[in-house]
Amino acid sequence: MQFNDTFLKACRNEHTDYTPMWIMRQAGRYQPEYRKVREKYSLVEICHHPEICAEVTILPVEQLKVDAAILFSDIMIPLDPMGIRFEIKESVGPVIDNPIKTLQDVERISEIDLDKIDFVRKTVQILKQELKVPLIGFCGAPFTLASYMIEGGPSKNFMKTKTFMYTQPDAWHLLMQKLSAGMFTYLQFQVANGASALQVFDSWVGNLTADDYRQYIQPHAKALFEKLKVLNVPLIHFGFSASHLLELIQEAGGDVIGIDWKTSLAQAKQRLGQNVALQGNLDPVSLFAPWEVLEKKTAYILDSIPQRGHIFNLGHGILPHTNVAQVQRLVEFVHTHSRQP
Ligand code: 1CP
Predict the structure, then answer these.
(1) Among this protein's residues, is 25 annotated catalytic?
(2) Taking a C-beta distance cutoff of 8 angstroms, is the pair 330, 8 a contact?
(3) Is residue 1 one of the residues assigned to a domain?
């Protein structure tokens, strides 16, 4: 089988025969095979075993026939080698041992020690050998990571994070700098070992006002994306529920802007311009609709913007109870409906 580079071409806004797609969280609970692996190993244990981790990464590519793989990992994984201890709790998400409260806590965060995540190097190297589609490396953006580090876990209103930002701006900016530097090194490491595109997940940044984004986040996001340019791979920048920040996110950087399901793709294209590639944006819950409804919604998205420079995806992660056969049908439909004669 030949290497399928359709996804990379679309990221570069080049002509492709059809619209490529992958799915955020494509390796996960909705797959019986993944659930089986999880009976034996925790999420972190999967990451620590390169052979198993590679298998979990490849599974959705083979099962769904998507055009890209995403490294199976979590945004928290590179925090441990910076001295941040965490746990991923069942039905909760990441929980931090000692949440950050003071400047001293921030000063204690170390530079990322790549020797401690040698399993990532091994996994990516296996995937480089085995995959016939590009591998997307990823990290959490500084704000999203900081929110877990300060709140101690998932949050609804980000009260502690914003209070920290407003009351201790020097400590905040130091934290952002440290995270931005650490994530650059981490992403560079993934590319050096075989990742051929990168996605930065700023999942929770939509909870900020545009003014706060500009003042507290954007300089650091910009610094990260500026440095990433030298790696010469497509960069995807995704924020959830961040319609009000789209231009600012684009200004911070990225060859591809990820669009969440709440935002109109056509309006995003108008606002951001024809030269930027867009990724998105089917509502993950649409997969629970009858096929005819799902088909209509998918066609609407595909037909709403030019085919060139569009990577089809969900507008956020796939949900645990999604039916695999429905996802397979979706992928097939996206490929055939978008095919240029
Ligand atoms: O097996 C399990 O425990 C299921 C839950 C799970 C999975 C499958 C977690 C806990 N993490 C992951 C893997 C993961 N996380 C991947 C690789 C899978 C793939 O895409 O194929 C990726 C890309 C992530 C990234 C991630 N983790 C993000 C950014 C993406 C997003 O959805 O916005 C975030 C915010 C996290 C934190 C996290 N990890 C896990 C959960 C349940 C959460 C969210 C918690 C919250 O609501 O705050």
Answers:
(1) yes
(2) no
(3) no
pTM beyond cutoff 0.90: yes
pLDDT, one tens digit for every residue, the chain (341 residues): 799 999 999 999 999 999 999 999 999 999 999 999 999 999 999 999 999 999 999 999 999 999 999 999 999 999 999 999 999 999 999 999 999 999 999 999 999 999 999 999 999 999 999 999 999 999 999 999 999 999 999 999 999 999 999 999 999 999 999 999 999 999 999 999 999 999 999 999 999 999 999 999 999 999 999 999 999 999 999 999 999 999 999 999 999 999 999 999 999 999 999 999 999 999 999 999 999 999 999 999 999 999 999 999 999 999 999 999 999 999 999 999 999 66
In a domain, 154, yes or no: yes
Whether 29 is catalytic: yes
CA of 25 relative to ligand 1 center, distance in Å: 7
Instruction: Give the domain extent around 26.
Output: 6-338
Q: How far apart are the first and last CA of the chain?
A: 23
**Is residue 113 situated within a structural domain?**
yes
Quote the CA–CA distance of 297 and 287 in Å, as a whole number.
10
Ligand 1 binding pocket, CB closer than 6 Å: 24-29, 38, 43, 70, 72-75, 88, 93-94, 138, 154, 201, 203, 240, 317
The span from the CA of 141 to the CA of 112, in Å, is 15
Is 38 annotated in the active site?
A: yes
Who's near 322: CB < 8 A, 6+ residues apart? 30, 284, 287, 288
* CATH number for the domain harbouring residue 48: 3.20.20.210
How many domains would you assign to the chain? Answer: 1
Q: Is residue 139 part of a domain?
A: yes
